Amino acid sequence: MTFISPRRYRPRLLNALLGAGAMTITATAAPGAGHAADTGSFTPAQRQEIVEIMRNALKTDPTILSDAITALRNNANAAQQNAARSALESHRADLLAPAASDAILGNATGHTTVVEFYDPRCPYCRKVLPDLDRLTREDRDLRIVEKVIPVLGQNSLIASQALVAAFVQGGQPAYFRMQAAIMNDSVTPTTDRMRTLATQSGLNAATLASDMNGPKVTAILQANMELARAIGLDGTPTFVFNARQIIPGAVSYDELKKAIAQSR
17 with 8: CB under 8 angstroms? Predict the structure, then answer.
């Protein structure tokens, strides 16, 4: 959700209203008195008069402010959408062709690709997991590419490193076993805790702990983060549908299903 703060756009609103005030002064001033307004330069007295006009107008018709805020919000949303479309187009190949290090839910050769950027410590990412499993069971042409990004601090980094290290050690099956362990675990992540979860998941705990800070795991996480930044990601989870549409934040099963259908 994008929220535009009225305070943030107050200078732009003020400038717009000052411009309107300039036209009013130019039209009504006596001959010879309009030079300052014509050049966009006001005397202190003129500026004070404009401010009073603005203040009185806003008191008598509050819709002026709400209409201005709505226009600014619409312009900001349009600019954001244009930037997102441009970013998706620039990184289309990266979003449609899974990397060798990406875990994939569903049909690995499916024609419909959803990329999920997620943090294993994000509660919304945990909540949506059953919906993703359901979608891939119901839609045999769907593949969901998972990209782990540690955006919630040191605990997220440790959990993310363990997930990728599990993939490095045993591929997709090891990754998904470790994912189930981590995403259902309520204990604060530490390297020792990751060793315990690795053992419970049938992995070599010592190897996983060593790989967590190794160059391969680091490179994979860095690549995921760079792609996330490139498309303007600002939260988790974030879903990208066939490199055409981005939906950030928590979404329901029905919303995901609708977006998948629209992207085809």
Answer: no
Predicted pLDDT of residue 113: 97
Torsion angles phi and psi, residue 203, rounded to 5? -105, 165
Among residues 30, 58, 90, the one where a domain terminates is 90
Span 141-153, pLDDT tens digits: 999 999 999 999 9
**β-strands 238-241, 103-106 pairing:** unpaired
CB 231 within 8 A of CB 88: yes
Pick from 70, 90, 110: which residue ends a domain?
90
**Residue 112, helix vs strand vs coil:** strand
Residue 129 CA to residue 38 CA, distance in Å, equals 61
pLDDT of residue 165: 98
pLDDT at 70: 75
Q: What confidence score (pLDDT) does residue 79 get?
A: 60
139 lies in the same domain as 31: no
Do 117 and 248 sit in the same domain of this protein?
yes
Low-confidence ranges of the chain (pLDDT < 70): 1-40, 72-84
Bridge partners, residue 106, by sequence = 143
CA–CA dist 247, 22 (Å, integer):
42
The boundaries of the domain holding residue 145 are 99-263
Q: Which residues of 143-166 are buried (b: 16+ CB within 10 A; e: fewer)?
A: bbbbbbbbbbeebbbbbbbbbbbb
Q: What is the pLDDT of residue 5?
A: 35
Look-up of token digits 């004070």? 48
Q: What is the pTM of this model?
A: 0.70
Phi, psi of 142 (to 5 degrees): -105, 135
Q: Mutual orientation of helices 154-183 and 123-138 as an angle, nearest 10°?
A: 40
> How many Cβ atoms from other residues are within 10 Å of residue 251's Cβ?
18
Same domain, 121 and 14: no
